[in-house]
Amino acid sequence: MTMKPFGKAAAIAAAAALLSGGLTGAPQAQEIRFFTIGTGGTAYTYYPVGGVIANAISKPPGSRECGEGGSCGVEGLIASAVSSRGSVDNVNAILSGLRDSGFAQSDVAYWAFTGTGTMEGKEPAEDLRTIAALFEEHIHLVALKDGGVNSVADLKGKRVSLDEPGSGTYVDAKLILEANGLSASDVTAEALKGNAASEALRNGKIDAFFVVAGYPTGSLVELASAADIKLVPIDGDGAKSLTDKYGFFSQSEIPAETYKGVPAVSTVAVGAQWYTSAKHDDELIYGITKALWNEESRTLLDVGHAKGKTITLETALAGVGVPLHPGAEKFYKEAGLIK
Fold first, then answer.
1. Which partner from 123, 168, 178, 206 sits 20 to 30 angstroms from 55, CA to CA?
2. What is the set of domains in the chain, with CATH numbers?
3. Among 56, 17, 19, 21, residue whose Cα is nearest residue 35
4. Helix axes 195-202, 218-226, angle to 10 degrees
5. 156 contacts: CB under 8 Å, gap ≥ 6
């Protein structure tokens, strides 16, 4: 099966074709509804997974019926995956109405919803609602194999990219530094994302960079094929301090050869979840949730991205700390996940 993410440009082009004559002969043009999914940088995991999900839940007017080789998505819906700065940016965009939904780390979303943790002092994001828990994200601390960075403590005095403010990586990188007795002021902090961070490491402009993403993430696959890199462990007392203080984090492992020539490494992980606004129509979110978990979507997830196979109905409520949208809750009750 060959599939492409249903991008925003493609969605708009399809709608324009339909509205300008693609439905000629139809008794009445079907209503079209656009639905955006905020993801992350194009080189990381959120964006391609967002494209797969957008494809799965979309059913543009004129599509063949489900079961006839056609879409089993939401009737008349055209969803698009939109690149963004990441978790914090997506939460803010959902609350402002800029985006209909978005992916975010479970820790970032919970702190935003409650106005606690790293969001202490900010107005709680009371309209934030969960659609589904998706997959586990691992914190990658990337350095050159012979670059002299063997632990988080070794970052002191080094040039380190923490990713862009507005990303979940930026939030978690600072927490990891703090858990290991450091702060952002103890490093020369850069704000690079994706391929820009990889190129800076290869060219000696930085000594290390953080990435929070489901493995394998595309930019690191490319980097490992072009340079000798290592994943620096995030473990020991620092990791224990982090997981003890914040229940969203867990100790986990990135397996050997996930990236060419890189051995297994112990690190910490956090959940990636899909959020929307409480202001969205219950039936729309019910339909989207139902479409996410149908058999056709299962096939698309399994073949569309390496992380897709780990996105399952059985784990759809794992680690959810922000209330479910009523539409999503209705589906999960029908599916027997909620009594």
1. 168
2. 8-135+273-334 (3.40.190.10), 137-271 (3.40.190.10)
3. 56
4. 20
5. 182, 186, 187
In angstroms, the CA 327 to CA 339 distance is: 15
Asked if 79 and 11 count as a contact pair (C-beta separation under 8 A), the reply is: yes
| Rounded Cα gap, residues 87 and 187, in angstroms | 23
Q: Tally helices (H) and strands (E) across the chain.
A: 11, 12
CA distance 207 to 204: 7
How far, in Å, CA of 153 to CA of 236, rounded?
Answer: 11
Under a CB-based contact definition with an 8 Å cutoff, are residues 292 and 130 in contact?
A: no
Quote the mean pLDDT of the chain: 90
In degrees rounded to 5, what are phi and psi of residue 116?
-125, -175
Under a CB-based contact definition with an 8 Å cutoff, are residues 137 and 214 in contact? yes
Residue with tokens 């009737």: 75
Residues 6+ apart with CB under 8 A from 123: 115
Residue 247 banded pLDDT, cuts 50, 70, 90: confident
Nearest CA-CA partner of 316 in 272, 284, 282: 272
- What is the model's pLDDT at position 62? 84
